[in-house]
Amino acid sequence: MKEFYDYKINDDGYAEIVIDSNIFEKDIIITSAYVLLEKAYFTISCLKDNNISVKLKLKDDLQDKLNTILDEFYKNLIIYKEYKNNYENNKDIRLMLMQRAIVTNEQEQNDLNTIEDELDFENMFSEEDLKEIEEIAKPWEEKFSK
After folding, report:
1. Which of 23, 27, 30, 136 might form a disulfide with 4, Cβ 3.0–4.6 angstroms?
2. How far is CA 39 from the centre of its chain?
3. Are the C-beta atoms of 50 and 79 separated by less than 8 Å?
């Protein structure tokens, strides 16, 4: 059985991981590396057989944690692959929910516009009522500072 990755440690201190690009796309590999940028330096390149080479060098204070960081990288590959699969599988459902929300919002706005059209705000109150409303709406200081 062929594994989806293989790695070796070079003499220059880099761990080189070769990843099968038929299983993990470039964007998943880049995202998995991005998450670990605080722990390691990454160089990503495409090989002649269309596999992807990821070279990583740990930052100085983490030299003894190579296996742990490699495990994190592999874990991230799987997590982001699954995330991407779920994103693609649920694309139509998300689109349907967004369309439903927009249609519902438009319907509510149309209902409000209909109510506003039915109510005649300009002629709803008499002149006397408008004067009383203006008097009520005056600030306290303006009313009683005389």
Report:
1. 23
2. 23
3. no
For 14, half-sphere exposure in the C-beta direction (CA atoms, 13 angstrom radius) is 12
Position 44 scores a pLDDT of 93
Tokens standing for residue 63: 């030299």
> Please, what's the largest Cα pairwise distance for the chain?
94
Could you give the CA distance from residue 116 to residue 84 in angstroms, rounded to a whole number? Answer: 46
CA distances from 7 to 54, 93, 130, 131, 133 (A): 9, 39, 82, 84, 79
Alpha carbon 90 to its chain centroid, in Å, reads 15
pTM: 0.60
**CA of residue 132 relative to chain centroid, distance:** 53
3-state secondary structure of 121: helix
Give the residue, 33 or 13, on which the prediction is more confident: 33
DSSP-derived 3-state class of residue 144:
helix
Nearest alpha carbon to residue 18 among 66, 64, 77: 77
